[in-house]
Design brief:
Radius of gyration: 27 Å
Structural class: mainly alpha
CATH class of the largest domain: Mainly Alpha
Helix content: over 70%
Length: 304
C-alpha cells in the first residue's frame, strides 16, 4: 500500500470529511481556538475602557491570528488536488478560490492586510472591525452539523422560496389593510402603503415595539389577523427546516455506515491486520443505521 504523501496528510488534517473517524483533528481544534481568540479580541477592542493603553497587545494578537489564517488559506489552496471534488478539474485551485468557503477564508485574512497597509480613519477602522467579526463564519466549514444545515436548505430551497413569496404576499395584503383602516386616523404612520409596511412587519413578526399600533376597531381586527398569519408562517417555516435537517442527518448517518461496511470488506479481502477492528466498527455502524431507520419509520407522536 502506498504511503500517503505530505499533501494528503495535510488534506486529512484540514478537512474533517477526509477522515474515516468522527471528530476534529488537532489542527482543526487549534484553528477554532484561533478563530475564537481573534473574534473575542475584536469584540473587546471596541470597548474604549479596556482597549486604552493596550494597542500593542491587540495589534500583536491581530498579526498572530492573521498569520495563522494566512498559512491555513495557502495550505487549503495547496491541498485542493487531494479533494475528490476537484481532482482532475482544470484550474482547480482557481475555481476553489472562488467558492464561498474559500472566499470566507480570504475575508479572514483581509483584516491583517488592512492593519498593515491602511491608516486609521474612523470609517476604515469600523469597517476593519466588522470584517474581523466575520471570521466566525470560518467555524461553519469545521462543523458537520453546519454541512447538514446547508444540505437541508439546498434540498428544500423550493419550499423555502414559496414560503418567502407567501410572506411577501401577506405583508403586502396586511399593509394594504392597515392603510385602509388606519390611514385617516394616523396619516404619519399609515398614510400610505409603504408607511404601513413597517407597522405590518412589526405585527407580522409579533415584535410589538410600541412605536406603531392601530387605534381604530378595523385596524385592530386587521392587526390581529396579520399576527395570526405571522405565527402560521413561522410555524410553516420551522416545520420545513426541521424536516429537512432531520433528513440531512439521516443521510449522513447512512453514508457513514455504508463507508464503514466498505472499509471492513476491503480490510477482510486484503487480510489486513486491523480487520477485526474494521469489522467491529462496521458492525457498530450497521447497528446505528438500523436504529436510525427504526426511528425514521416510527410515526410522529399523536398519529396512529
Amino acid at each position: 500500500m502506498t504511503a500517503p504523501t505530505l499533501r494528503h496528510r495535510a488534506y486529512e488534517m484540514l478537512e474533517p470529511e477526509a477522515r474515516d473517524r468522527e471528530g476534529l483533528t488537532l489542527t482543526n481544534r487549534l484553528i477554532i481556538l484561533v478563530i475564537l481568540v481573534a473574534c473575542g479580541a475584536a469584540i473587546i477592542e471596541t470597548e474604549p475602557s479596556i482597549a486604552a493603553g493596550r494597542t500593542a497587545l491587540f495589534y500583536a494578537i491581530e498579526l498572530g491570528c492573521g498569520l495563522v489564517f494566512s498559512v491555513e488559506y495557502l495550505a487549503r489552496l495547496w491541498i485542493v488536488p487531494e479533494n475528490p471534488r476537484w481532482r482532475g478539474v482544470s484550474l482547480a485551485r482557481l475555481r476553489y478560490a472562488l467558492t464561498p468557503a474559500a472566499l470566507v477564508d480570504l475575508v479572514a485574512v483581509l483584516p491583517t492586510l488592512m492593519a498593515l497597509g491602511f491608516g486609521g480613519s474612523a470609517l476604515m477602522l469600523r469597517f476593519f472591525r466588522v470584517i474581523r467579526i466575520l471570521r466566525l463564519a470560518k467555524l461553519g466549514r469545521l462543523s458537520r452539523a453546519w454541512t447538514n444545515l446547508v444540505d437541508a436548505l439546498r434540498d428544500r430551497r423550493h419550499e423555502l422560496m414559496l414560503t418567502i413569496v407567501l410572506s411577501f404576499i401577506v405583508l403586502l395584503v396586511g399593509s394594504t389593510l392597515l392603510y385602509w383602516a388606519e390611514g385617516a386616523a394616523q396619516p404619519a404612520q399609515f398614510g400610505s402603503i409603504p408607511r404601513a409596511m413597517w407597522g405590518c412587519i412589526v405585527t407580522l413578526t409579533t415584535v410589538g415595539y410600541g412605536d406603531v399600533f392601530p387605534v381604530t376597531l378595523a385596524g385592530k381586527v386587521a392587526a390581529g389577523l396579520i399576527a395570526v398569519a405571522g405565527i402560521g408562517l413561522f410555524a410553516l417555516l420551522t416545520g420545513i427546516l426541521a424536516a429537512a435537517f432531520g433528513e440531512a442527518v439521516q443521510r449522513h448517518r447512512e453514508a457513514a455506515a455504508i463507508a464503514a461496511l466498505d472499509a471492513a470488506a476491503e480490510a477482510i479481502e486484503d487480510d489486513s491486520v486491523d480487520a477485526a477492528g474494521e469489522r467491529a466498527r462496521a458492525e457498530a455502524a450497521l447497528e446505528a443505521l438500523e436504529k436510525a431507520e427504526k426511528v425514521a419509520s416510527k410515526p410522529p407522536a399523536g398519529l396512529p
